[in-house]
Model the fold of this input.
Amino acid sequence: AQSVTQPDIHITVSEGASLELRCNYSYGATPYLFWYVQSPGQGLQLLLKYFSGDTLVQGIKGFEAEFKRSQSSFNLRKPSVHWSDAAEYFCAVGRGDNAGNMLTFGGGTRLMVKP
Amino acid sequence: KAGVTQTPRYLIKTRGQQVTLSCSPISGHRSVSWYQQTPGQGLQFLFEYFSETQRNKGNFPGRFSGRQFSNSRSEMNVSTLELGDSALYLCASRLTTGVNSPLHFGNGTRLTVT
Done:
């Protein structure tokens, strides 16, 4: 069974600083990887996804993520954080074999932005 | 295009009661999934429906059930509510059932069981 670990439960960064949120997955085959963001009282919004090809993927709101198969990681990055980025971020993995199309989510990382 | 709509937004129920939550997917989306979000367990998959058929089911007791109608709208039902069922229930729709078809989430229904 697949699993996702987000080692950092909380992260605080200053506005304008760079950001990296870590995500490690466990899955035997090529995973389908996603990053979602959830603002308070809201549902989840898709930031970006990786299926195949270029291991550096660009998403919305200036986010990018890099797939590293050797490290089983899919870390999310942003060069300069804005106060509006404060939210909870979820990494998720899906199976590519259509036997189970549900996503398995990590526990989330709550991002706080200092002015 | 309207997003995924979930009703009601908030619900308070008593232990032992049952509850029905509703989800209207994005127009044209035929797959609807349900997830439970709690502080302790995080986001957990409940089930997915496509063309009125349940395609996948997560590891939840039989008290949790769902259905999908011909217009793709979906409902989930929880019977004999327990305190541990208090959670944010999220519905998500997508165009197809393929894992590469991104999920679009609604804002959820916050269920409190007292």
